[in-house]
Amino acid sequence: MKSIKVLGIGPGHPDYLLPITKRMINECEVLVGGDRQISARGEEDHQEIIPFSMPLEAMMEKIRTAAQTLQVGVLVSGDAGYYSLLAALRRFFSDDELDVYPGISSMQYLFARLGLPWSEAKLGSLHGRSWDWMEDVKKRKLIGLLTDQKQSPAWIANQLVEAGIQDCWMAVGENLSYGNEKIEKMRPDEASQREFEALSVVVIGYE
């Protein structure tokens, strides 16, 4: 069995795709990903595609079968080690069967665009998960959050307003790295009245 390449493709724009990852994508014979991830291969079209839309166990079995004779690359958004499919892959494959390559995460990207160090920040994801981030906000810590359709930037803002926390700011990053990228910094009461892209990144901080 050939090792399975787990490739972090960055926040989305091809400028942020690492050269080694681009080379690995071109060398793979089978690619695993959704439409957005697969688009990272550019004009190449020689690979067989295994879509993320398959049931998880069926997808993993198809990956294992393909990897017996072919080079498989699993394309994940952002960084491979940051809230990606890597955690699920590790349940089905051993460490020796996975070869992981990093990418630039959307969280890393937003902190850079804001000109903020993130070494002391508390980071987490609300994308299909729960996390008691409010306690860290109350301690006036710098917070980074990945959002989803339910736990959206507006929902986060409402939580802050209901908790009476109005002296912090929220930076909301939408469509990060793309041509229609939008990064706005505002108070929670303003953000609570706005609509944002479901899969956004939020940074909460204090002046």
Describe it for me?
- Helix content is 29%, strand content 22%.
- The chain folds into two domains: 4-101, 3-Layer(aba) Sandwich (Cobalt-precorrin-4 Transmethylase, domain 1), CATH 3.40.1010.10; 106-205, Tetrapyrrole methylase, C-terminal domain (Methyltransferase, Cobalt-precorrin-4 Transmethylase, Domain 2, 2-Layer Sandwich), CATH 3.30.950.10.
- The N and C termini lie far apart (53 Å).
- It has eight helices and ten strands.
- The chain has helices at 19-27, 35-38, 56-67, 86-92, 106-114, 133-138, 153-162, 188-191; strands at 4-8, 30-33, 48-51, 72-76, 98-101, 122-125, 143-146, 169-174, 182-186, 201-205.
- It is of the alpha/beta class.
Give a topology summary.
Blueprint: E1 4-8, H1 19-27, E2 30-33, H2 35-38, E3 48-51, H3 56-67, E4 72-76, H4 86-92, E5 98-101, H5 106-114, E6 122-125, H6 133-138, E7 143-146, H7 153-162, E8 169-174, E9 182-186, H8 188-191, E10 201-205
Q: Give the beta-strand count.
A: 10
Biggest sheet descriptor: 5 strands, parallel
Structural domain count: 2
Strand order of the largest sheet: 3-2-4-1-5
What is the 3D shape?
elongated
Summing up helix and strand content along with how strands pair, one would put the structural category as alpha/beta
Number of helices: 8
